Amino acid sequence: MKKLFGLLLLLILSVGLVACSSKEVSNSGDGDADTGTDTPSSSDSSDTADSGEDGATITYWYWADNTEYSNKMQEIIKEFNETNDKGITVVGEEYPWDGGGYSETLFTAAMGGGGPDVSSFKLTSTPQFVANGLLANLDNFIADWDDKGDINDNLYNVMKQASGSENIYVMPWNTQILYVYYRPSIFEEADVEVPTTYEEFLTAIEKTTLDRNDDGRTDVYGFGMRGAKGGQEPWGSFIHGRGGSFEDMTTEESIAGMKDFVNLYEQGYVPPTATTDGFNEIIANFKSGRTAMTIHHTGSSAEMVETFGDDVSAFAFPPGEGQWTSMGDTENVIFESSKNKEAAFEWVSYLATGKGQEEWTIATGNVPVSKKVQALDHFQNDRFMKASIDGASYAGILPILDTTTEWINTIWPNTIASSLMGDITPEEAMNTLQEELYK
């Protein structure tokens, strides 16, 4: 009898221990183990919120560069809230960019369990956020999206590249794409047509380098080269023009592009100050008539028109064995913690291809990602926007690695300067750039 009582007591205690163990697991934060029935599980709550029910409220964090843009975003939010047919309400919360501090604020909030449903975003932050499981995978949303084809496949590939995977975690919104500025009057003087190939571009640089009064001094340099920090972006177009790439900068093709770049300096087709010229210098040289061409984006187009009127235009960097130009970006992300991901996707898709896309890109002067919006007269009749849009199908980004910041700020400008001045060979320069980026 005592043995029977002891076995019965042991059985009761065992059941109690299993129950306690189950309770501990369900509170551990592991969603797959949350199988209790006494309270709704986190996955049950998410499924209900994502069922497309009307009336969802989502928070949206964003930054705005000025008061005009801030007001425009609030107008877009108001319009979406009033016109969407699912009763979704977006609550916009503006935060300062703060020299990139915005991304740190966003990361800290998300890691702490707070933060918004949706946020404006920079691609360079993607690896950190994805590695910590903070961003929602958008693959299924985009696959089922009627407007998927309204965005160039190249842009989806850039989003994947940023994540370091075959998955899309970032929703395209608006971009800035580098193109070549040129002076039509100087092209006419040099009897040069707008180049349509990489080889023609190199020839145009040579021919628009002018000694107008035959005194042995160059009056106009064909190209405004940016050898200081930030110059890695236009430089990349030369590397790809010969069929090279950032993946392996030591290939014969990549080195050939580097040799082209160095040759422009050695032959005197660019200002002798190119080794230290940054953004301010290349823009000042172009505006003063010292250079016939330089590379930038629509952010400087207004001042170019103010300076030259109709005597300034642009063309997309032309193709050679390969083709590439640099893309700046501002995108959007949905957070994995959001309980209203379907409503959140309605909002980010409205910004990507809906009325919000049109209104925001017109207001800010950024390049739209929607093909329908790109086709509007407002963009097609703007020669600088047209050059940007022409480059959209091959625009890209540098690899986003732990080493990228130092490489951009220090390694690239120092290595390029040494190569331009002949202290190291193009081969040595490219080996250094490869080793330092992928170390």
List the helices and strands and how they pair.
Elements: H1 2-26, H2 42-49, E1 57-62, H3 67-83, E2 89-94, H4 101-111, E3 118-121, H5 126-131, H6 139-143, H7 153-163, E4 171-177, E5 179-182, H8 184-189, H9 198-207, H10 232-241, H11 252-266, H12 279-287, E6 293-296, H13 301-308, E7 313-315, E8 325-334, H14 341-353, H15 355-364, E9 367-368, H16 371-374, H17 377-380, H18 383-390, E10 395-396, H19 404-420, H20 426-437
Parallel strand pairs: 1-2, 1-3, 8-10
Antiparallel strand pairs: 3-8, 4-8, 4-9, 5-6, 5-7
What distinguishing features does this structure have?
439 residues; alpha/beta; D-Maltodextrin-Binding Protein, domain 2; 2 domains; 7-stranded mixed β-sheet; 3-stranded antiparallel β-sheet; 20 helices; globular; disordered N terminus; signal; Sugar ABC transporter substrate-binding protein; SBP
